[in-house]
């Protein structure tokens, strides 16, 4: 740098100095070469001497090498063979090592294929997991491993699809078998309840024997028979007890749940399962349109629902989280609302009490079965109280027809009994007691007609029928007693009362039948206390209990009796009118026939024979009927005289009319019905008598003089009436 950077002549000076330095080195080299030249010459001389020896040595070495090469050819060949074998051995060792790494992978993959072929999908998923996490990473560099890795997700999807298909088949299977599952569960629940009830009754026999010995002897024998039959049925069906697991294979659910859980899609599976089961629940809860026509329709409906929830309960207890108690409760509440709505609708179409009773029994078994699986069923028992009212209505309709048939078939004549056996048959059906009649010898007649014991027996049958519905409702004896009394009151006050009222109003029911109806209602009224005792014996509830209802039969039969009495009065008056209508007076006759008119004598004979039938009626009824008939006859005769169409009356006609009134007065004085005091009955004709006396004796001066006075001889003669007749 200094050479190029210094003064301008520096380069030249540097070159001059460099040349001087080179000359100095050349002189030193020359000196050194001169110093060593002799040694060099000597060395060259020795090398020339050695040259000949080196050539000899070279020839010898070449010959030796040739001979050695010839001798080592076989060794070389063997050595090369050894090398080749050792390379092969090394390759084999390497292959064995690699195969030892690959064989477990291939074995696991083969195992996976075998598991897939035998549908062991859960185990196949476990095998896949081992392949992915343990075996395949060791040999990931090989192409077949890459193929396996690519196939594993496809196999997983295939497993999911297959398991889902199995689940769908399972859902279809339980949909088809739900009715059979439910039927089996309901039958087992009913058998268990029957067995428990039989044991309970058997244990209560000794306690009840001291209270009602005679009645409980029958109960004891019945309970022993029931218990024996129950044990026999248990022994007979012991080997045939089936559960939901026996009827349905649940393994598809377990497999699918495990598979989806392993694949991390457990929530998806749960949602799908619950969604499908909700759809099936809606289908199960949808009733057939004709379900209300037969009990089999209801039984199948209940069996399907029970089967559905038995399956869900089983799934709840054997799986972890697939369904929860909250889910099943929600599903049950939804189903219960639908069931209640369906039963309300369809039960309203039932007009047969036997079908309603069968429905009630099915609902009780249905409720008891599901209650055994932990589902709340209080709303079902509340529904049964609604159906009970409907059951009572159907019973009332049925018994209304029975009562009508009994009344239609009755001959309305006292029951004849020819001997003691016939008498006992009657009193075994109806609690009749009459010491005076007991003293009479056979043959004799009981005062009531054949319909009375039949009606009484039908009322008892109604109580039994009503009791059948009250059984198994988990109600106390007091509540059952109250229900029986209320339903019996409805039967008496509404159904029987209506039938009696309709019977009384029928045109073919005559006076004799009406009299017998009054007698019948009197005996039925007296039998009401025996019906109360009958209910008390059934329920073991004393009538002295504060809250015990009373039967309203007394008012029912009193009302019917009053209606019959009124109808008697009406029909008597109608009959009198019929006789009056056939009266044929010659109002212009000059003198009377000297005897009463024929129509009036027929009327009096009719009244006399009719009032003889009234001897079995209560005294006041017969007296009222007789007084009413006489008053109506008197008014009819009076109206006949005052008829506006009648313009002229002769004194002969007045005399003839007077003879007829005299016969009426004689009839009244003959006491056709006992119990009248003095001439009370004759007063019914007092108006006619005073009016006719006024015309017969023509005592107008006395009438006018005494008019308005309490002591007047013609006090009951109305001036307008007298004037009208006077004009005629």
TrEMBL record:
Belongs to the SEC15 family. The lineage of its organism: Eukaryota, Metazoa, Chordata, Craniata, Vertebrata. InterPro entries: EXOC6/Sec15 (IPR007225), EXOC6/Sec15_C (IPR046361), EXOC6/Sec15_C_dom1 (IPR042045), EXOC6_Sec15_N (IPR048359), EXOC6PINT-1/Sec15/Tip20_C_dom2 (IPR042044). GO terms for cellular component: exocyst; plasma membrane. This is EXOC6 protein. The keyword Transport applies. It holds the Pfam family EXOC6_Sec15_N. Residues 17-186 form the Exocyst complex component EXOC6/Sec15 N-terminal domain. Keywords: Exocytosis, Transport. GO terms for biological process: Golgi to plasma membrane transport; intracellular protein transport; vesicle tethering involved in exocytosis. The keyword Metal-binding does not apply. Residues 380-728 form the Exocyst complex subunit EXOC6/Sec15 C-terminal domain.
């Amino acid at each position: 740098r200094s050479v190029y950077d210094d003064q301008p002549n520096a380069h030249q000076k540097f070159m001059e100095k460099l040349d001087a330095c080179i000359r100095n080195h050349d002189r030193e080299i020359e000196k050194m070469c001169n110093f060593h030249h002799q040694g060099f010459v000597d060395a060259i001389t020795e090398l020339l001497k050695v040259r000949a020896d080196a050539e000899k040595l070279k020839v010898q070495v070449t010959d030796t090498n040739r001979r050695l090469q010839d001798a080592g050819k076989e060794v070389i060949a063997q050595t090369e063979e050894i090398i080749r074998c050792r390379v092969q051995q090394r390759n084999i060792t390497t292959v064995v090592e690699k195969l030892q790494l690959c064989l477990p992978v291939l074995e696991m993959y083969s195992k996976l294929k075998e598991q897939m072929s035998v549908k062991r999908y859960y185990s196949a998923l476990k095998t896949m997991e081992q392949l992915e996490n343990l075996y395949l990473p060791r040999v990931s560099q090989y192409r077949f491993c890459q193929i396996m890795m690519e196939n594993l997700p496809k196999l997983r999807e295939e497993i999911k699809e297959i398991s889902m298909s199995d689940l769908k088949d399972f859902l279809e299977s339980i949909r088809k078998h739900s009715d059979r599952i439910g039927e089996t569960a309901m039958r087992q629940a009913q058998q268990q309840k029957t067995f428990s009830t039989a044991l309970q009754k058997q244990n209560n026999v000794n306690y009840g024997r001291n209270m009602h010995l005679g009645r409980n002897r029958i109960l004891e024998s019945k309970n022993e028979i029931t218990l024996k039959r129950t044990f026999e049925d248990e022994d007979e069906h012991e080997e045939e007890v089936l559960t939901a697991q026996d009827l349905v294979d649940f393994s598809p659910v377990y497999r699918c749940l495990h598979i989806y859980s392993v694949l991390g899609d457990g929530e998806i599976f749960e949602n799908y399962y619950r969604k499908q089961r909700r759809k099936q629940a809606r289908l199960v809860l949808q009733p057939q349109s004709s379900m209300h026509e037969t009990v089999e329709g209801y039984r199948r409906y209940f069996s399907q629902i029970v089967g559905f929830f038995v399956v869900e309960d089983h799934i709840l207890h054997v799986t972890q989280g697939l369904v929860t108690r909250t889910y099943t409760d929600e599903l049950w509440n939804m189903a219960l609302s639908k069931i209640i709505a369906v039963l309300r609708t369809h039960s309203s179409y039932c007009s047969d009490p036997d079908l309603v009773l069968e429905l009630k029994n099915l609902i009780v078994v249905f409720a008891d079965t599901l209650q055994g699986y932990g589902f709340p069923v209080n709303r079902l028992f509340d529904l049964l109280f609604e159906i009970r009212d409907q059951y009572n209505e159907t019973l009332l309709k049925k018994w209304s027809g029975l009562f009508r048939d009994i009344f239609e078939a009755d001959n309305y004549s006292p029951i004849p009994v020819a001997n003691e056996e016939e008498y006992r048959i009657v009193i075994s059906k109806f609690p009749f007691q009459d010491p005076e009649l007991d003293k009479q010898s056979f043959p004799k007649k009981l005062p009531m007609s054949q319909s009375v014991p039949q009606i009484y027996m039908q009322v008892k049958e109604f109580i039994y029928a009503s009791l059948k519905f009250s059984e198994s409702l988990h109600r106390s004896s007091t509540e059952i007693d109250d229900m029986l009394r209320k339903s019996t009151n409805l039967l008496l006050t509404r159904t029987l009362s209506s039938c009696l009222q309709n019977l009384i109003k029928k045109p073919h029911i005559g006076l004799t039948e009406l009299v017998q109806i009054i007698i019948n209602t009197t005996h039925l009224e007296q039998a009401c206390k025996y019906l109360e005792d009958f209910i008390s014996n059934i329920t073991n509830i004393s009538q002295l209990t504060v809250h015990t209802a009373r039967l309203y039969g007394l008012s029912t039969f009193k009302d019917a009796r009053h209606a019959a009495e009124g109808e008697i009065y009406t029909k008597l008056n109608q009959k009198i009118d019929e006789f009056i209508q056939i009266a044929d007076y010659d109002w212009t006759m000059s003198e009377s026939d000297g005897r009463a008119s024929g129509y009036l004598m027929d009327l009096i004979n009719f009244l006399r024979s009719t009032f003889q039938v009234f001897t079995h009626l209560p005294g006041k009824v017969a007296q009222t009927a007789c007084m009413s008939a006489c008053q109506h006859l008197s008014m009819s005769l009076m109206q006949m005289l005052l008829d506006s169409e009648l313009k002229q009356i002769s004194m002969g006609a007045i005399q003839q009319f007077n003879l007829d009134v005299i016969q009426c007065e004689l009839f009244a004085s003959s006491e056709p019905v006992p119990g009248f005091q003095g001439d009370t009955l004759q007063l019914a004709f007092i108006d006619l008598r005073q009016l006719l006396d006024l015309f017969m004796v023509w005592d107008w001066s006395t009438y006018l003089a005494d008019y308005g006075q309490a002591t007047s001889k013609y006090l009951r003669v109305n001036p307008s009436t007298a004037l009208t007749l006077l004009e005629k």
